[in-house]
Design goal:
The chain is α+β, with helices and mostly antiparallel strands. It has a single domain, classed as Alpha-Beta Plaits, CATH 3.30.70. Helix content is 22%, strand content 43%. It is built from one helix and three strands, in the order βαββ. It has one helix at 17-27; strands at residues 2-9, 31-36, 40-47. A three-stranded antiparallel β-sheet has the order 1-3-2, covered by helices on one side. The termini are close together.
Length: 51
Amino acid sequence: MHTERICVFGIVQGVGFRPFVSRIAAAHAIHGTVCNKGSYVEILAQGSPAA
């Protein structure tokens, strides 16, 4: 298992960013969370290195 923490800065509210990330992750068997942290969105993703 490999875990990555990704921070995305910029305007992501109101554009469906979190559901988009969730759909892409599910399609590639990647698990984790996507949440707003104020000025950025934090993605915690975990999956096999190949994913």
